[in-house]
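Journal club prep, shared notes

We agreed each person brings one worked example of a sequence with its structure written out as tokens. Mine is histidine kinase. I'm keeping it raw so we can talk through how to read the token line rather than staring at a rendered picture. Sequence first:
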Amino acid sequence: MKRLFIVLSILLSFSLQSQQIIPLNERPYLDSLQNVLNNTSQNTSKANASFLLSNYYRNIDSLLSKKYLEKGKIFINGNTFLSAKYDFYQAQYYLDRSKGKAASFYQKAIKELSKFKNEESDLLQASAWYSYGVAQKDKEGYPFLVKTILEKSIPLAKKYEGSRNLGFLYTQLAVIFTYNAEFKKSEEYNNKALEILEKRYSNSSELFFTYLNIANNFCYQARGDDAKKFLDKAEKLISPYPDSSVNAFYYYGKTLYFITRQKNSEALPVIDKGIFYTKKFNQNMLAQMFYFNKFDILKKLKRYEEAKEVLEDVLAEKSLAIDLKNRKTFYKQLSALNEEMGNPKEALVWEQKYSQLNDSLNTENVKLEINKIESKYNAAEKERKIATLNAEKNQKDLEVNKKNSYLWGLSLVLLLVISLLIFLWIIFRKNKKISEQKINEIKQKEELSLTKAILEGEERERERIARDLHDGLGGMLAGVKINFSTWSVNHLDTEKDKEFYRILGQLDNSVSELRHVARNLMPESLLNFGLETALNDLCEFYNRKDIEIDFQAISIEKNLPLNIQLNIYRIVQELLANAIKHANASNILIQCSQSGKDFFITIEDNGKGFVHNAEQKTKSMGLRNLKNRVDYLKGSMEINSDNQGTAINIELNIDGE
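Then the structure, token by token:
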């Protein structure tokens, strides 16, 4: 059942993102829309028909979908309601292409649609809120999506009890609960959907997908007989329409049913039928999911060479493998498959690919044990310096005034003497200032040389340790684990030797932990993909439900020397950790930009700010490290902080040393 869970999880996630509700009898539906475009003179009708055609083709033919979307825009002619609908369908177009753009257009559509108080507007808003939650799912998680549906979408749809939109939303809630293994809750919402759809929309696509989702829910629980009842109902709805694109979804549900009943041989021809429909309607993602099922079945039938070939083809096609988490699953499957085939060397190659990808996906996943930061920097020092300069200025002004008063009382004879003394005093101060500047420059050069040696030595040692741990000890332990796994298949019994497999699992966890420590010592994404990717990964690591981090990179060159990239990465790392751990910020903006040989770092947060005189009360190694790295890059740092948040601006000189 473990393989079924993996495949079903991918399907459920896919159905949330891409499922479109189109009539089962597609051809008359498309013909009627084309007829409106060709034979109707009303711009409103033509705009609506264009938007619906764009929505139909968005996952079949992206160019045609875009063409109809822009065609509908032409017919708006100042109609604000049509303009709001255009924003909604533009968001639909981007949903599977750019979730960020889609989310932005959904919010714009909701804002404009809320100005209209009618049924169509309310139901479009309900759909927009649901799709907005889907677009934000990867960032905010499933709880956010459920909350959006329950608090935003359903209240709008419930104004019109018995609407198919409400039935659809209940079904999608059920899908989410199935995905999270809450099968009873899923069944409750599926039954709510059935109460509406079977009574009012007995031949609808919404009811068809509800039947499939119920069958999938039962498959997930290995309740094959219950699943068969609803799969038969779905078949009855779709069988009159052999040319419908949703046939592929039916055959996928039927595939899951055969897998649940362990009828692997019978599942293979069903998969081939599903693949036929996915190719006919350019459903590439669903096609690759069929192939993944085919791999799983061939493996169970011990047709290892065929299974290996299928999964390697899925990797090469990239529709599923473009998602790094899916690719990681495929690497793990290929490693396990080669172990079963008795190919330990090839198994090790796939295991290493899995480990490397797992490391990059979990950048900064362990606690930072090196360079722990306490960078609470206080603006009091800056204020003190300003106050000192003002005092000096006032003192000088007072002296000048006194001298002016005294000069009025002196005779013309003394005027020459005083002028001479002033001239000599100016020369003396100037020479003294020049001497002090030279001394300070010498000291600064010595300090920078020392800092450079320390930082470069520190990074070299980190890199050496990380390389030794990851490539040396990590590779050896991974090899030992695979050899143990291969040996245990032929010599041990799974049930009798549970203690051995528990110890083997501990060894596997130890290898993962060792690689995490190695990656922390030297961020792998920085070495492999450059500064911008490494900083983006760092921000993604700290992102969670109660913290929103907005990272903006502007014109960062990829050919920066590695030592400069490392120092910039460490500076941002310390600033970001400080904002989260010490300022208790919930919103953080980080902007990194480059202009020639100047590099700028800006971080703003809504935290509690700095405590006054903190710099005088603590000896912070983190603060010294931060200042040393800024000085090393001949930079400057400005901090503004109060109880409403903190803004830090850093300017660095990244010219060659």
